[in-house]
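Justification of resources, computational component.

The compute hours requested in this renewal are based largely on the per-chain cost of generating structure records like the one below. Each record pairs the submitted sequence with a full structure-token output. That output is archived, and it is also reused by downstream analysis tasks.
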Amino acid sequence: MTDPYPTPVQAVILAGGQGSRLRPYTDDRPKPMVEIPGTGVPIIGHQLSWLAAEGVTDAVISCGHLAGVLQEWLEKAELPLRVTTVVEEEPLGRGGGLKYAAAHLPHPDRAWYATNGDIWTRFPLREMAAFHTERDATATLALARPRLPWGAVETDAFGHITDFIESPRVSYEINAGVYVFSPDFAALLPDRGDHERTTFPRLARQRRLAGYPLPQGAYWRAIDTAKDLTEAAKELAAQGR
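The structure output for this chain reads:
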């Protein structure tokens, strides 16, 4: 299907994970409701503001773990766009959950964004959508090049250590958890299971899957652990955000 409106105005946020590695922060709230210290904003609040600033008018949030806490916050917050929440009655897997949420988007014939609920980032989504359209892709993944959480060493050919590098960037790009999908993508998702093991590899073999490198200087961090919270707070404070 050809989308006559290449710049998406709708998005899905996957916010149903257990967040077990972020305990005790996630003992009483879902991971997207965790606040980066010093920001006064939960991750989901940042994501909604970012999406709205990029032209998104409607978001569907797929809830799971402690869904009521997130829904209560949404009811009280001043939101910059229209939000619908859906809750899986039984676990559907990442691909099934994405498909279930996508079925509630207001414009099934138009492209859409998606993001994992634990991503704290900001970059021009409209440029990613243009990249997606130019490559006539069915799905486009944002790609990040994160830093190692450890220091690294450099050695010469003889085995002498020549330098120490603190938290260098890895040589490979990774899936950054932000996507652009064409209208026909939802039909390719499994009803149950993981689309990263089924749908994505199939699209890659067909050359219908694109990878958009995050722009130089764009901020990106997946909030998986308490250490990520601490590091994100330091980085954002240093950038004056």
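The chain has a mean pLDDT of 84. The first strand starts at residue 10 and ends at 15.
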